[in-house]
Amino acid sequence: RKDSIINEEMILAVDPEKSLFFSLRKFISDSTMTEDAKKGLMTMPDQNVHIRYIIKKNYNNSIVSLITDEYSTAYKFVITDERKLNWKLLQQKEVISGYECQKAELIFGGRVWSAWFTETIPFHDGPYKFRDLPGLIVKIEDSKGYHSFQLKEVKKIISSKIYNNVDLGKNIRLFTTNKFVKFYKDFRKDPAKDFKQRAMSGDVYYESDEKRSEHIRIVEKLRKDRIKRDNNIIEIDMMKEL
Asked: What are the C-alpha distances in Å from 69 to residues 18, 98, 112, 123, 144?
């Protein structure tokens, strides 16, 4: 819905070995909950966070991981992606966000992408899973204008604070991209399946069967409503045959 555009400020934190790409609002929310938990306080997550995933790129082995807690109340999902990005470099140049940039094109995730990168910033990285150009991606968007990223600011940060906040914990489910696609299609058909199984097994305590049934209905409605709104994902080819 182009009359209902969602904007979110993201951070691409880069060091010589790796990078993290995540929502600034989510980082603040998670940090607040962690600090409050140390004080014995329970704080709810910020409901205005739209992008819940974290993208981690390992420069040493070229593995990209998408980390998210969106699909389960019990697990964090880590989905590894080793696909190569076959960029086509073009001769067009333009100044974007104050940097001399060159254009490149890519087919990825069922979309055609146009990217502008600058060799002035010598990191072969960019937003989301985009990487492996001769410099930092300053701007990238798909051909229909549904998804767009543009650099707003570059500054030095204390990266250890950010990396320490990305705690995977013990409850992790690992997926390759291909296996996750199958899970994702099933999830969209029944997004509350995982929660319903936990509620019915006794993992979650309820005062009565009526309370349990009511809570399941609420969670199921919330997740189905979110799925209905989220029908134009970045990697749109994951929704084929749904």
From this structure: 21, 36, 28, 28, 29
Q: What's the Cα-to-Cα distance from 193 to each of 28, 35, 176, 235, rounded to whole Å?
A: 29, 31, 21, 23
C-alpha to C-alpha distance for 13 and 146, rounded to whole angstroms: 24
Query: Other C-beta atoms within 10 Å of 161: how many?
Result: 11
By residue count, the chain amounts to 242
Query: In which element (H, E) is residue 90 found?
Result: strand 88-96
Q: Number of helices and strands (H, E) in the chain?
A: 5, 11
**Bridge partner residues of 11 (DSSP):** 22
Q: What is the pLDDT of residues 15-40, one digit of tens each?
A: 888 999 999 888 777 777 767 677 77
Distance CA 154, CA 11 (A): 10
Q: Give the global pTM.
A: 0.85
Higher local confidence (pLDDT), 190 or 167: 190
